[in-house]
């Protein structure tokens, strides 16, 4: 079975950093693209970043601050988040979907498998 486990969220002050991890099982990264999404209260889920064999995407709102990376040996995807701001407060999810040979997608509807989410709160 495909499973995704997101972790690493927490409370951080503005300007701080966090690294989120997404541990995957039941598939390898050469099968599916991986995306990071977030959902703030009262807002729609939005794509933050994604990666596949053929592409990497970072949303404009986080470009220059967030970096996605993969560790194939650990079957884990990371989201390094720097210079965090209160607007980054949300539940962050990792997801898998679309073949990894394709350009990865920032649309939640393109992903079939979802982790449980990890809360990130940026507040002083």
Can you describe what's shown?
The chain has 124 residues and is mostly beta strands. Helix content is 0%, strand content 50%. The strands form 2 sheets. Strands 2, 4, 5, 6, 9, 10 and 11 form a 7-stranded mixed sheet that branches. Strands 1-3-8-7 form a 4-stranded antiparallel sheet, with no helix packed on it.
Quickly list its features.
124 residues, mainly beta, seven-stranded mixed β-sheet, four-stranded antiparallel β-sheet, 50% strand, globular
What is the overall pLDDT average?
95
Shape: globular
Total E-strand runs? 11
Query: From the alpha-carbon coordinates, what is the Rg to the nearest angstrom?
Result: 13 Å
Helix/sheet category = mainly beta
């Amino acid at each position: 079975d495909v499973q995704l486990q997101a972790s690493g969220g927490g409370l951080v002050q503005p300007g701080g950093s966090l690294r989120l991890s997404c541990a995957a099982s039941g598939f390898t990264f050469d099968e599916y693209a991986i995306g990071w999404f977030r959902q703030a209260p009262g807002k729609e889920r939005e794509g933050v970043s994604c990666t596949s064999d053929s592409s990497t995407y970072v949303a404009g709102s986080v470009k220059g601050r967030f970096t996605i990376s993969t560790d194939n040996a650990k079957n884990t995807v990371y989201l390094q988040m720097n210079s965090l701001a209160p607007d980054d407060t949300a539940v962050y999810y990792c997801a898998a979907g679309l073949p990894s040979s394709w350009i990865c997608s920032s649309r939640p509807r393109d992903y079939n498998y979802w982790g449980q989410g990890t809360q990130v709160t940026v507040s002083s």
